[in-house]
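B., you asked whether I could sanity-check this one before it goes into the benchmark set. Here's the sequence:
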Amino acid sequence: MSKDEILNKLRKVHSFDVTGFNEDTVSVENNPDFKKQIRYTLDISFVDSNNILQKKKGIVMFTPDGQTIINSKITDQ
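And here's what the prediction gave me:
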């Protein structure tokens, strides 16, 4: 689910690959619904529409049961 979520945020890319992965549980103070969330961090690489290799980090936050995505973002490494 994490890989698909991050891939859906990217436009016109090819050669998408997950080069690293990390999972951890984080405490969240400003969310009354979930005191803890699961964070998946993916190191990704892809070739953008200008044929330039990009290396980024995708972060996907899940509910404590790991079944629902709360939010996601892509950042520079």
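One thing to flag: The mean pLDDT is 93. Otherwise nothing jumped out at me.
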